[in-house]
Amino acid sequence: MIPEMTPNGHVETLRTLHRIGEAGGVPCYAGSNVAQEFSLAVRDGGLCVTPKTTAAYQRSLRPVAHFRVQTQPGDYPELNLMMGMISFPGGDTSTKCYRPFSRDKARVAAGLYVGVHSRLGDDPGYFNAVFRHFADAIPAQGIGPALERYGSIDVDTWARRFQQLHSHTYGRTHLVELHLLDLMVRASATDDRHVIEIGPYQGRSTAAIAAALGDCGVNSLLFSIDPNEFAPQAADVALANVAAVGQRRRLVQIHRPTAAVTGIWTEGMASMAFIDGSHEFADMLTDYNLCDRLLMPGGILVLHDIFPARHVGYEPMFPDPPRLLEEVVLPSDRYRPIAAAHQTVALRKLHGPNP
Question: I need a surface site. Which of 64, 155, 233, 319 has the fewest CB within 10 A?
Fold first, then answer.
């Protein structure tokens, strides 16, 4: 779905993925730079990794899993980064076997990716490639116009944008979550409908959303609500990040609690809403009720910090965002999950509030 990148020397922005085989029936893929340092093989239902040479420092591979998540409203694909690490301490050249795992029976493994995790952290080129591959698993009916809009992308610019957002903006939104936001904007953007963001912090997600709106060529605005009235300097950083992607004119910053702005918009004015504000349940419920009223039928709701506790087997730092999804949004029967990446989930609004 996301277009192929032609060889042009910019291999750091979008790596190639190579299929290794199947581990326990699960297809396995490796980033193009893995083979430089490691030998890979599939046997005994697992992915076996052996360093090719001895090194004085620790080396690691970062596994990422593609799960199919089963829920009552419907199944959806998930790109899960909480899969541990395959690590080799200095001097270790032993073979280690890795198997995709989950403690949650609702998650069924559909793919496994491995990439080099350097001493500098995550490799943007690896995660750009992983999300591009994963996006093909998202049902076409869930993302609508995004299929056509990706056809006109300059792929080098697209990959470099995400590399820049990853490297030069600050925030807790991972690169694959920025990709999911980008995809959902492209799937929902339409003239005379706008995007609501609650909780921009320093504008990493804000810049990704604004840039995608620019690519779509619509006249939409991005209303960015920061409920934290005591951090005005963050708004200045967010504005600079949006200006850096050339979309300053789209951004409307609102520095007020959500409850103070509920009456200034009309129902159905938004094509997409992204909630990443307060992590207290009462505040999140206020955020959700606002976004639910403003979203048009067919619009997309995106929630952040949806920690997969049943997958990892321990409680999240912020327990209320998963509560909102599981106790309010999914039982409402008004939203159907489209896809998830790391701790972000996107859902399609089926119809308006119950009478």
Answer: 233
**Residue 325 corresponds to which tokens in the numbers above?**
């999804």
Residue 71's alpha-carbon distances to 18, 105, 110, 269, in angstroms, are 31, 11, 16, 29
Q: Which two tokens stand for residue 331?
A: 């039982």
Residue type, 88: F
**How many CB atoms are located within 10 Å of the residue 117 CB?**
19
Alpha-carbon distance 210 to 248, whole Å?
8
Distance (Å, whole) CA 129 – CA 112: 13
Query: Phi first, then psi: what are they for 73, rounded to 5°?
Result: -70, -20
Asked, for residue 230, whether it belongs to a domain, the answer is: yes
Question: How far apart are alpha carbons 55 and 88 in whole angstroms?
Answer: 9
> How many domains, the chain?
2
- Establish how many alpha carbons lie within 13 A of residue 354's alpha carbon, considering only the half-sphere containing its beta carbon: 7
For the chain, the straight-line distance linking the first and the last C-alpha, in angstroms and rounded, comes to 38
Place of tokens 């327990």: 319
336 and 347 Cβ atoms separated by less than 8 Å = yes
**pTM greater than the 0.90 cutoff:** yes
* Calpha distance 169→161 (Å, rounded): 11
Long-range contact pairs involving 164-167 (C-beta distance under 8 Å, separation at least 24): 164/244, 165/204, 165/207, 165/208, 166/122, 166/124, 166/127, 167/124
Q: What is the pLDDT of residue 285?
A: 96
What is d(CA 303, CA 162) in angstroms, rounded to the nearest whole number?
A: 20
Does 142 fall in a domain? no
Alpha helices in 245-299 (DSSP H): 281-294
Domain that holds residue 227: 147-349
pLDDT in tens, 71-93: 888 899 999 999 999 999 999 99
